[in-house]
Amino acid sequence: MQNAEELLNPTGEEKSDWLDLIDDVRDKLVIPVGPRFQVDIPDWTNSRNEDKCKYKEDESETSKWLGTPVWPTDNLENKEVNEELIGKGRNERCPCKSPGSVECVKTHVKEERMKLKSELGTAFNAWNFDEMGEEVSNLWNAEEQKKFSSLVKMNRISKSKSLLKPALASFPNKTRKNYCDFAHYFVLLLWLF
């Protein structure tokens, strides 16, 4: 009867370490560099010669695909930007009574949200920032939140694959989007913490 080592290595060659095999594979990888693998891109010339152009742009067609610009707004030039703060991050010292607490974080998030809202102007609502984060929970009253919580608990126990159908039946006044937004907020923030 053969021993276990002979079965694992029947050729009698020296055993190689698995890490050596991985390193060998990495050494054999070839990165395609050279004239065969490069694209020749001509220099950009900013001259638009309408005669040479095969396709003439129709302004109405172009604006249909590009849409209406939302941001930056026209009054952006009036805003002052403190360039010294860019890239520095937040101030390490927090003036709150208990830095790092839930209330501290909520306060700073609210401050930054208001700052962003003032900077973006109408784009804030156009980009649906008003329907993100904790603001989603404000669209649901306390009774609805409690009902949703119990529905989630019952769904966990029953191990149902979908919470969507029972939730839509339980909240007929809410749209599918309202439900999905709140469920996302609820699951990510309230379950994890």
From TrEMBL:
<dbReference type="Pfam" id="PF01448">
    <property type="entry name" value="ELM2"/>
</dbReference>
<feature type="domain" description="ELM2">
    <location>
        <begin position="29"/>
        <end position="83"/>
    </location>
</feature>
<dbReference type="InterPro" id="IPR000949">
    <property type="entry name" value="ELM2_dom"/>
</dbReference>
<keyword id="KW-0539">Nucleus</keyword>
<protein>
    <recommendedName>
        <fullName>ELM2 domain-containing protein</fullName>
    </recommendedName>
</protein>
